[in-house]
Design brief:
single chain, 622 residues, alpha+beta, 21 helices
């Protein structure tokens, strides 16, 4: 929307541009040359290789030549030098400064653009290029340069100031004011920004006053016309006060047929619909109000409340996202976003967003209350988004010709992200007098409350103990108390391979989760086999507190020695009992796992191998 004639007047625009390009700012950019060795933007890739002038170019020498006003020498030597070292951003920076002195801003801009391509985090280059673009009145390019600079120089007040100026000249007054407010918050003593902010706030106030006066005039005209028919806003308010909602609804609709532009009556009609529990018509009225008056007091809040009430969470998020774009530094709208995910049962997502809100407003009461509400549901969700752990498995193995201890150790780091959990592991195994390592990466992308995936990638160092390469993908769905999943895994093992397909059908009954899961093994060569497992898990008061029993039987390859998977499979039976619990006194930060395993395997030749082992796991969340 175009601003008023006052804002776009030549005199006022000249004042703004003068402020934005003040001598103090420009001098501060040029003076960066004196401190260039203090920045991270110096390229030390070039070394003097002879006594020729152009090969001896250094930031210090360029500074000396620049101070001595040897501009033609700088141009000649720099151009030769850059033919051999085109990525030296320091030389391009000084060459650009020289072109400015020679009153050739176009050539200066070319050098600065090339310097940014090589060194995008070079702050001095970016600021100088922005100053040139401002003088050329290329405000869209200024905004793009400033926004790109945010990636490398977060909360840099010079870049923010340039962005504010660009917003102003692009007729985005509100964004300009918001950006200046951020600067003043970061640097309360920034006089330049304070001065511009006061000027723009004055303009905004005058615009609002004019708009309000015009709106009031229109309202008076509409009221005068409405009174002729015996209906006005005070009459409708009186009906609402007396709780005569049906009649107030009828009169409001009748009034709006004649005066559809009266947003005050339309807002009252939305309130009436809400009182009558007619939520969809109420939403429609509020949307019409907000179309013409996005900041109409109360309309946005009521619409969001109705979206919550009708569980239209996606629509609520759309409303909140729009406000976040308008007010990027306001913790209120982050809290509301977290509330949406809380109401949908996405507690981890809610906590992630609340953490962002706390960084903006550490003492925000609404965010604190929501955080406590999630903690009351289950402290597991608020104990931490990061997790480090170690898992140790020792098994006593006995057979007709071997008695030994097998070892398996795993250490990992996990992170609960907005889109799901990711885990990085290093695994170690020792058996058959061999040792090996495996690096593994897992991800659990969450699509919605009914669907998530499991992705597994791993690489091993000993094909007898770990696959050389592993690729796995699974999908899991939840509906009511039934869950179903299907997975596939491909293991590349030396000269052979193994494919494992699996499905899972589970049911939740109160605090119990019961599931059946078969595994289908397909080696590159040799017999195929199926192993069946049945599990029952009993949860305690929290997600991280449970006991579980898993039993299995059937046939499977000899997964203890992977290089035999293509030649035979084993008949096996096993049982494992697991206890998983939060460590007392750690507020769910510490987690323990204890499991005991018993297994019996029978080889095709009748040899029997028995396992008896214990698994211990410890994790810390922060």
């Amino acid at each position: 929307m175009m601003l008023s004639k006052y804002i776009t007047s030549k005199k006022f625009r000249t004042i703004i541009l003068a402020i934005s390009l003040s001598a103090v700012v420009l001098c501060s950019v040029v003076s960066n040359a004196e401190n260039i060795d203090k920045t991270n933007n110096i390229n030390n890739n070039q070394t003097a290789v002879s006594t020729k002038d152009w090969k001896d170019l250094t930031p210090k020498k360029l500074k000396t030549m620049y101070d001595a006003q040897k501009y033609p020498d700088i141009v000649v030597q720099s151009k030769i030098y850059l033919k051999y070292y085109p990525k030296d951003s320091d030389v391009r920076y000084y060459l650009a400064l020289t072109f400015i002195k020679l009153k050739k801003p176009g050539l200066a801009g070319q050098q600065l653009t090339l310097a940014l391509q090589s060194t995008p985090d070079y702050l001095g280059v970016r600021l100088l290029l922005i100053r040139i673009k401002l003088k050329q009145e290329k405000y869209a390019e200024v905004l793009k340069l400033a926004e790109e600079g945010d990636k490398y120089h977060k909360d840099n007040t010079e870049l923010l100031y340039d962005k504010a100026v660009a917003y102003y000249f692009l007729n985005q007054l509100q964004k300009s004011i918001q950006t200046l407010e951020v600067i003043v918050k970061l640097e309360p003593q920034n006089e330049k920004s304070q001065k511009l902010l006061k000027n723009l706030q004055k303009v905004e106030a005058e615009l609002k006053a004019k708009k309000m006066a015009k709106t009031q005039e229109q309202k008076q005209e509409e009221k005068a016309k409405a009174k002729k028919g015996g209906i006005d806003i005070d009459y409708i308010k009186g009906l609402i006060k007396d709780k005569r909602y049906v009649k107030s609804k009828q009169k409001s609709i009748e009034y709006l047929q004649h005066y559809p532009g009266d947003v005050d009556v339309r807002y009252l009609l939305a309130i009436i619909y809400n009182k009558l529990k007619e939520y969809e018509p109420a939403k429609q009225q509020l949307k019409l109000v907000l179309q013409g008056y996005p900041n109409y007091e109360g309309a946005w809040d009521l619409l969001l409340d109705l979206e919550f009430k009708t569980r239209s969470y996606q629509a609520a998020l759309k409303l909140i996202y729009a406000k976040q774009q308008q007010y990027p530094g306001d913790a209120k709208f982050l809290y509301l976003e977290a509330k949406v995910y809380y109401m949908r049962g996405y507690f981890f997502k809610s906590v992630i967003i609340l953490n962002r809100a706390f960084r903006l407003e550490p003492h925000d009461e609404n965010s604190k209350k929501l955080f406590i509400a999630i903690k009351d549901i289950d402290p597991y969700f608020t104990a931490g988004l990061n997790e480090v752990g170690i898992f140790q498995n020792n098994q006593d193995v006995s057979s007709t010709n071997d008695n030994t201890i097998w070892n398996y150790t795993s250490i990992y780091y996990g992170r609960q992200t907005f889109y799901g959990k990711i885990i990085a592991r290093i695994n170690y195994a020792h058996r058959f007098r061999r040792s090996g390592y495996q690096g593994e990466l897992e991800a659990y992308p969450v699509i919605n409350k009914h669907l998530y995936f499991h992705i597994d990638l791993a690489y091993g160092t000993n094909p007898s103990l770990f696959p050389d390469e592993r690729y796995g993908l699974g999908a899991f769905t939840y509906f009511s108390n039934i869950d179903f999943g299907i997975t596939g895994r491909f293991d590349k093992i030396a000269q052979t391979n193994l494919t494992v397909a699996s499905s899972r059908l589970g049911m939740t009954l109160g605090s119990y989760w019961i599931y059946f899961r078969p595994y289908y093994f397909v080696p590159k060569e040799g017999p195929r086999s199926i192993l069946y497992t049945l599990g029952i898990r009993k949860y305690g008061n929290y997600v991280d507190e449970y006991v579980e029993l898993v039993i299995g039987g059937g046939r499977a390859p000899d997964l203890a020695d992977l290089q035999t998977v293509s030649f035979f499979n084993l008949k096996m039976n096993f049982a494992q009992f697991t206890v998983h619990f939060p460590i007392p006194g750690t507020e769910h930060h510490g987690i323990m796992l204890i499991a005991v395993l018993a297994e019996r395997q029978v080889f095709p030749n009748g040899r029997v191998r028995k396992f008896g082992g214990i698994n211990l796991g410890f994790a810390w969340r922060f």
